Description:
The complex is a heterodimer of chains A (about 250) and B (about 240).
Chain A: E1 4-15, E2 18-29, E3 33-37, H1 44-52, E4 58-64, E5 67-68, E6 78-81, H2 93-103, H3 108-121, H4 137-149, E7 155-159, H5 167-183, E8 187-192, E9 203-208, E10 211-216, H6 218-225, H7 230-244
Helix pairs in contact in A: 2-3, 2-4, 3-4, 6-7
Chain B: H1 3-18, H2 21-41, H3 46-78, H4 81-86, H5 92-121, H6 130-152, H7 158-175, H8 187-194, H9 197-210, H10 216-238
Amino acid sequence: xxxxxxxxxxxxxxxxxxxxxxxxxxxxxxxxxxxxxxxxxxxxxxxxxxxxxxxxxxxxxxxxxxxxxxxxxxxxxxxxxxxxxxxxxxxxxxxxxxxxxxxxxxxxxxxxxxxxxxxxxxxxxxxxxxxxxxxxxxxxxxxxxxxxxxxxxxxxxxxxxxxxxxxxxxxxxxxxxxxxxxxxxxxxxxxxxxxxxxxxxxxxxxxxxxxxxxxxxxxxxxxxxxxxxxxxxxxxxxxxxxxxxxxxxxxxx
Amino acid sequence: xxxxxxxxxxxxxxxxxxxxxxxxxxxxxxxxxxxxxxxxxxxxxxxxxxxxxxxxxxxxxxxxxxxxxxxxxxxxxxxxxxxxxxxxxxxxxxxxxxxxxxxxxxxxxxxxxxxxxxxxxxxxxxxxxxxxxxxxxxxxxxxxxxxxxxxxxxxxxxxxxxxxxxxxxxxxxxxxxxxxxxxxxxxxxxxxxxxxxxxxxxxxxxxxxxxxxxxxxxxxxxxxxxxxxxxxxxxxxxxxxxxxx
Lengths: 253, 245
């Protein structure tokens, strides 16, 4: 077994004729939390879609849990949460989870327990039988997260799971991610554009404009750039990169 | 294809409907009200009622299932649940089969109510067996589901999905022989009506009204309807993609 859950070499993605991810080479360690950071539009979501095999036109090498990304064996081993909660608004939280558990192949007798555990993990047990449409935005997001926890995935890909959540809930979710990594050995990939969340990751990938600015631990990143926070480190790296290769600006006549 | 996943999908679709009793009521009650209306519109000419009523017994399930399926699949695409399902071990056939089963079950109830009402209470005069009416109505519902699924791939919003109903179904309604016998139309239109599936849905109903037993033409009509439905379902499956741009 490879000690890396994800390995990319020369990864490139083209969307609508535009190169969204360009020549990325990186690895994500197993059982750790890797943060994917960068300004919005830098290609975070596209990279996550490539990891779960939902993205077309991916070239280069991308290995996930020792299989090429999107391999059919991975479909029950990778949990994926998109930015917008992808659950059925006209079902209750429990009914949503029961359906997705059935799709994942959980035997009928084990389903109720598994659904209860996922609901407990995201602290939604008290709202289990409310219609998802009637839940708050944050609660709906947690139903979507609970779906991804079903079946104990080895890799969890979470696209901005804490956006719009209050600080208490954000802390609780980060505790959950750490628990998953430490107790269940889950590899967690979390994207965010909130830099204070970066400090909670074991490892960081900093993306800007489809290119990798850094692949490091938060400590080493701060040390290397001489910055006090990851946010400062990121800004320094962005400025350095901009000085080295300015972004193409609008052509003037 | 996996029976457990297909059944789970059908159950999920029915549960979604279960939270929406008004839609269920509309699907079941509206055809019955319209058929009753039809009976009294043709108060003076019961023979016209017999042929138009039977045709509509085939057309209602087609239209209802078309609308419901196209909106339901469009929602699945826009809400991200389709992308999620496609990243899970669910075969496309499981998803399509689940939808077909769930809406098929609703179609059975709808067609039973509409056929029962027409034959028992409204005095629709049918030479053949009312069971054949039911079978034809089911095949028509299946065709509606398949067409709706296919068309939803081309709709980017619910506004567009609803507009596909008049665009896809109204021309077929005009040409299916409900208003004017198909052979009496302008020859180009007769030819056109020969290649549209709703014509066979209505012809099948006509066969049951006018003939006792299962006629060869009835079998042909049913086979064409089922074949078109399978074709649309296959094309619909091709529009479900695991990897999207």
